[in-house]
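Contributing new records

If you add data, match the layout below exactly. Sequence lines come first and carry their own label; structure lines follow with theirs. Keep one chain per record. Anything else will be rejected by the validation script.
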Amino acid sequence: MSRATVRRNVHFLDGENNEVLGFWQNGSVVWDQVTGWMHITITLPSMQYVVFRCLESGQDPATNHGPSTNLLDNNDIVNLGYYVVLSANGEPLDIAVTKERAIPRSVSYNLSNPDPRDNYKVICFVPDPFGFDGNYMFQSNYPQHYQPLRSLLKYHFRMAVLCNMKATGPEYDWDENIPPGMDPVVEVSNSEKGKLRFEPIMAERLNSLVE
């Protein structure tokens, strides 16, 4: 049995009781949206797996579960708790999670992410005390030239799903062992993944000025 260390209140387990996917539900996410997120994160064809509600917080999920949940075109709100992903006949299934990783960024993958599949409804993958979650990004009276590119938003949301849905959470495997007294920017510039690391470091510096 394994569980993700990131903070979540919706958990998806495999038949061996390992957490393979999950997210934080602020109250606006419906099952039809989760269908799209699973299409991004699970490499198996959607007809090969079915989601069942666990009866007891993920205890023996392969046998101790309720009826299957219809995902496609289901606009019911996803209830908090544990779910198990099994084959169509209820047997344990090897859930192949994509190896694609989100490009490292600062906190923007966690906060306001407009879902292009749902008319750009804002999804917050962390607790949302500000009430952003569930609002819609675009209003009909906004001039087109003031709106961000749809393709950019679609790409950003895909990165947000990869960053937050996969069981391990954000996957950054770079070396953080920067010697004392060395400038992080200089060290990063000379590293193998310097370009990917540069933006988070600059964001940290700018955020400290804002705070």
